[in-house]
Write a structure and sequence with these properties.
The chain is of the alpha/beta class. Among the domains are: 213 residues, Alpha-Beta Barrel (Anaerobic Ribonucleotide-triphosphate Reductase Large Chain), CATH 3.20.70.20; 234 residues, Anaerobic Ribonucleotide-triphosphate Reductase Large Chain, CATH 3.20.70.20. It has 28 helices and 19 strands. It has a seven-stranded mixed beta sheet with strand order 11-2-3-4-5-8-17. Strands 1-12-13 form a three-stranded mixed beta sheet. A three-stranded mixed beta sheet has the order 16-18-19. Strand 2, helix 10 and strand 3 form a beta-alpha-beta unit. Helix 8 packs across helix 19. The longest helix has 29 residues. The protein starts with 10 loop residues before the first helix and ends in a 10-residue tail after the last strand. One of its GO terms (biological process) is deoxyribonucleotide biosynthetic process. Provides the precursors necessary for DNA synthesis. Catalyzes the biosynthesis of deoxyribonucleotides from the corresponding ribonucleotides. Belongs to the ribonucleoside diphosphate reductase large chain family. This is Ribonucleoside-diphosphate reductase. It catalyses: a 2'-deoxyribonucleoside 5'-diphosphate + [thioredoxin]-disulfide + H2O = a ribonucleoside 5'-diphosphate + [thioredoxin]-dithiol.
Amino acid sequence: MTLKDLTDVSYFKLNNEINRPIDDQIPLQKDKEALAAFFKENVVPNTKTFPSIEEKINYLIQHDFLEEEFLSKYSMTFIASLYQFLDEQHFEFKSFMAAYKFYNQYALKNNEGTKYLESYEDRVAFNALYFADGNEELALALADEMIHQRYQPATPSFLNAGRKRRGELVSCFLLQVTDDMNSIGRSINSALQLSRIGGGVGISLANLREAGAPIKGFDGAASGVVPVMKLFEDSFSYSNQLGQRQGAGVVYLNVFHPDILAFLSAKKENADEKIRVKTLSLGVVIPDKFYELTRKNEEMYLFSPYSVEREYGIPFSYLDITKEYDRLVQNPNIRKVKINARELENEISKLQQESGYPYIINIDSANRQNPVDGKIIMSNLCSEILQIQEPSLINNRQEYEVLGTDISCNLGSTNIVNLMSSPDFGKSVRTMTRALTFVTDASEIEVVPSIQNGNRLNHTIGLGAMGLHTFFAKNQMEYGSEESLDFTDIYFMLLNYWTLVESHAIAKERKEVFHNFEKSDYASGNYFDRYINQVVLPKTEKVKDIFKDIFLPSASDWQALKDAVKKDGLYHQNRLAVAPNGSISYINDTSASIHPITRLIEERQEKKIGKIYYPAPSLSNDTLKYYTSAYDMDMRKVIDVYATAQKHVDQGMSLTLFLRSEIPEGLYEWKDSTTKQTTRDLNILRHYAFHQGIKSIYYVRTFTDDAEEIGSNACESCVI
């Protein structure tokens, strides 16, 4: 019986029995039984075996499964010793879902799809050897981090590392469009190419002139952003890796753009088919001024990007609207229209209730906290990438007269539960930083020169985290409690510290820093002053005890790092970003990202297989009461946790809000007349997030009365 005709198996049935309580107890042992049956009935009989590691590798190279180049950088003796080390760790999956996900989605299979050619140890080995680039010490260190699941590369990296037939290692891309037909055309081609390569594509349309704006040399008027959105949606639908996956894209628009209402309406279920976008994600870029106008219930003006660019000489995205708002209103040369701010705010909330969109980017918050020179104008498909960009200028031959900078995302994640058990926390984080550095160094997106240029100049990476709720549950902390915030503060401070240490070490080794380092707050030293003046240390007794054996930097340690960075620089412009990592958290047997779990027993529909049930990681009688569902939790607790981490994260975090359509009584003090979810609830929570310094909000997910979830992860690449 091969993988193509597996019929008489017991593991799906055993797994499904988890969802049937026995004496009011969750029969967790059924998941262990399903796991054992999966290996016995599926993995073991369908895995191709080899007499030795050398014969396996030779076979995989000869049959075009593995690249020979990265393996040739090591002796076979070393590779065998690496395998011996991995074997001695006695790795085991902890749940049926973890094993099923790995073998179904990540393990290399033969051309017929009938045999597994890789185990988990194989995939870890090939990742370690690939990212270490010939450095034996680093390869062993990476293997150690991955086999103990302290570090998890992003899905494209983990899946593709070392393979001969593969996509790119990067997770997603960001492009901005400027207000001319050459840029629109070139961007559509770029979107086609990037979607073909793999990963989601974020696109900023904020610079485009609005519907009805004049077009120089023509009697007609511009059609606005909606037709361009349709062109991008069709591009992603077409460029889908030969039908292997759905192309994924998000378009961003500034809330002060005159087309904002049409932009939002295009996602409504009852929108006219001529303008409706079905698969494209939407994001809204919101300056501080919008929150002020809505809070005061005032009229707001929407400004023409065309007239703004003519008046200020810069694209619309690069104008500080909060700072310039009053002057824009008073300037007769700026075309503008007036609407009610709260009515627009309610339209945003209505759409979030209906679809989960739009994502929200608090752009002034992002730029206030940005330590490097330049302007952040947008984000990516999962709202955690926040990096500066520079516009390009494209001539009539579709060539770059000015090559700007766009963005590729190089992501990976720490597993909080396992990293906290590392024998050397700092060494672990430094090793992960090296792995991500290889990804950014090896990335060559020649087909989109602006992305290639941004990557070459800035060497950006995004190390994040998963498993925060699992760690809280195992350590008997309520999500959002004082102790949980205390732990979050220390953990992300340490990620920040050690990635800075390693970025400095790489810059010193290579005598190379990121572009315009000398204009950054790192170069001036200002960035470090907050850590020197107010050292981040545990406040609660429980968290003091948790970190008692882990190095915590003192003011003098931060001062020494400040002096070293001022002298030698940093290699990476950006280092930290917290992605949703929903898919691969299953393989890591931990909760996704840093948000709460949604269910004690999660139910997933796995294509043709049917339903698979996944118990919350480390679920037991001891952890049960600490696993409150996100849908039953005050979202201000979630926002507080993210805001605590955000203080140390130089980019963003994929913060999802979870609400029930019927909100539990007593959860929010303002719910005095109805339990039904309203636009007011979302308005209040968005304002709270803004005031807490949150840079972005990803989906708003609503659990309906008929047990459906509105708003869910759309990008398998960015969910790590």
